[in-house]
Amino acid sequence: MRLAFHAIGVVFLTLLTQIGGLVWVGTAVITHRLHKRRLVKLGVFLLIYAGISLAAVSIAPVFGRVALPCFATGQSQLAMQSPLYCVLNRHYVSKPMYQAANNLAADMDRRFPGTLTQALDANFPFLDGFPLLPHLSHNDGNKLDIALFYADPSTGKYIRGKTRSPIGYWGFERPERGAELPCDGRHDILTGRWDMGWFQIFNSVVALDRPRTRAAFEWLTTHDKGGKVGVTKVFVEPHLGKSLGVESDILRFQGCRAARHDDHIHFQVGR
Fold this sequence. Notes:
Blueprint: H1 2-17, H2 20-34, H3 38-59, E1 65-67, E2 78-80, H4 83-87, E3 92-94, H5 95-111, E4 117-119, E5 143-147, E6 150-151, E7 207-208, H6 210-222, E8 231-235, H7 238-244, E9 251-252, E10 264-269
Parallel strand pairs: 2-4, 8-9
Antiparallel strand pairs: 1-3, 5-10, 6-7, 8-10
């Protein structure tokens, strides 16, 4: 039973944070003979985990990864939507993606001064091909999700650093009447297309900032398309893309088995 518990812990933390499983094993080895109290073991785990996570920022460039900024300052143009993504080591991107994300954020701030572009899931610090669940393709640092932009529903004024969902995901935009719904009526068993009805009670009452969100899509689908640091693919639900009036040959529907993309923007650089 104890072995099964440790095995589950290692697998779960490895899939969630990449380094967590290794830290779990290290903690078990260190505390096996020294102390039996759970609080002591937790303290050792957190200490080792924090140390390796901090070291990963400096080591990741060896693997072609760069850490996105975890916190927004008063002058920030780009930051993670929540420090949680940094705690879980899910804020690493390739150098071309780092440049693309910063260029997008700079353009958003130029067009709409004071705008903060918020990143969501990116990639882990080490190794190409390592899965970043539940995503199907975030495994090489060249894919990044960013949050939509939101405004006060009563005034229409942009709210800096605010998202509908506390984690940036699962705050879906409702389709307009008669909108294209390619997955309507499907009930696939193996799918990541979750409506997350139970989660909606945690979401804030905000309105989509349409000018900013449209501008982000426009930049992603037109700037240096296919170039050295060019964006090569952007995912969006058809109803949201049509509602915003954005079209491009690199603007794609991700399919009915992948996660919904009317709560965030997914884009990638390179192949």
